[in-house]
Amino acid sequence: MRNVTDRTSNPFGLRAPFDRSDPGDRPAVFGYGDANADFHVIGDYPGVHGGETTGVPFTETEAGLAVQDVVRAVGFASGPRDEPVLENCFWSYVHPCSLPAGETPTDDDYDDLERFFDAELRAINAHILLPVGARPTDRVLREYTTQRRRYDDPLEMAALHASEIRGRGFLVVPIRDPREWGDGDREAIVARLEALLESDYRQTKGVATTVG
After folding, report:
1. Most buried pick, 53, 58, 101, 184, via CB within 10 A?
2. Using omega within 30 degrees of 0 as the cis cutoff, is the peptide bond preceding 154 cis?
3. Where are the chain's structural domains?
4. In the CATH scheme, what is the code of domain 32-205?
5. What are phi and psi of 101, to 5 degrees?
6. Residue 130 phi, psi dihedral angles, 5° rounding
7. 93 burial type by CB count under 10 A (0-12 exposed, 13-18 middle, 19+ buried)
8. Half-sphere exposure of 94 (CA within 13 A, CB side)
9. Which GO terms describe its molecular function (predicted)?
10. 133 pairs with which residues across the strands?
11. pLDDT, tens digit, for every residue of 14-50?
């Protein structure tokens, strides 16, 4: 099924359940990009991966822009860095709401906002999920695959980076948070994405048509 929408920012019209943002910041940074995308990049929260003032994931912060540069390198993004044009790619966060400067989400905060992330993930129904960092990767592996028990706790993101993990009807490709990248990490994820684009990656969905 194809999504019928011409909206790039928050295409499903989600509304923030609270506003704890600093003055001038957006209450929440919901999904952005191609609502019919095959590739879904999943970040953590606006304070670390950006968008508090732009309303667009993976903008403003060094870590967010590093992820955006990878997406650009494989041809998914073009145009302005604060409001890029995305093709075949969608961006969202496991915790979309903005918080006061210096405040980080608690476990309860992540649980409270899971319904928003889950709604976007299921609506996009991408072939490839690309969680960025330990928290998004842990959430995706726990909730949308049967593979979490196979990996250490906490996750060894250096070992998982740019690997392929089979999910329930899709493929998970974890990305180490750019703040922790070492030599070759950027090149590894670019190479993995290029290889997927050259493959028949749509077979990752098999007969499954919904996540879960």
Report:
1. 58
2. yes
3. 32-205
4. 3.40.470.10
5. -55, 130
6. -125, 80
7. buried
8. 27
9. 4 iron, 4 sulfur cluster binding; deaminated base DNA N-glycosylase activity; metal ion binding
10. none
11. 999 999 999 999 999 999 999 999 999 999 999 999 9
